[in-house]
Amino acid sequence: NGVSFDVQAGQSVGIVGESGSGKSTIARLVMALDTPTSGTVSLEGRNLHALSKEELRVARRDFQMVFQDPYGSLDPRQTVARIVAEPLEALAATTRAEQRERAAETLAAVGLRTTDMDKYPHEFSGGQRQRIAIARALITRPKLIVADEPVSALDVSVQAQVLNLMQDLQQQFGISYLLISHDLAVVNHLCD
């Protein structure tokens, strides 16, 4: 109730709170997966909840999400190439060859090899799976990535690697992050 904040271009904003405090609800509202009972969610001046289905589908290339559980958010029956390229299929008129090329570029950007493209999620460690999830979010070159507890399911040493990767990607691509967490050290590391 009464939540109000702005995320500027290239900025990382953290939302912190205990379990059940509404952090994930905010993420779902920002992603236009739920509709607010009042108020607005705007991206670059456009009220996301006032857009038609088609307008929202097109707008989604500008905002993507990384979920807490990298294994649960990746379809185990799909190859990494298909998982990463999926947003392109939904958002852009690209050929399979173009999608595969963009997937290879994006996987390289998150520190994975192009030879990993034809593997399946179960063939990777938790940190590598989260890199795949980040690549899937990154492939449309969004302006905003909502990251809901993106490292809480990972070992502490792997958490630092993934957070450093997110910072590097932010500098490289000018991404804004809305980071949902209950871990103040994670928020302190990534957020402005």
Explain the overall architecture:
Helix 3 packs across helix 4, helix 3 (80-91) packs parallel to helix 5 (126-138) and helix 5 (126-138) runs parallel beside helix 6. 41% of the residues lie in helices and 12% in strands. Strand 2 (42-43) and strand 3 (46-47) form a beta hairpin. It has helices spanning 23-30, 53-59, 80-91, 96-109, 126-138, 156-173, 184-190; strands at 12-16, 42-43, 46-47, 63-66, 144-148, 176-181. With 192 residues, it is α/β, with parallel strands linked by helices. It is globular. Strands 1-6-5-4 form a four-stranded parallel beta sheet, with helices on both faces. It has seven helices and six strands.
Summarize the structure.
The protein is an alpha/beta fold. The protein contains seven helices and six strands; from the N terminus they run βαββαβαααβαβα.
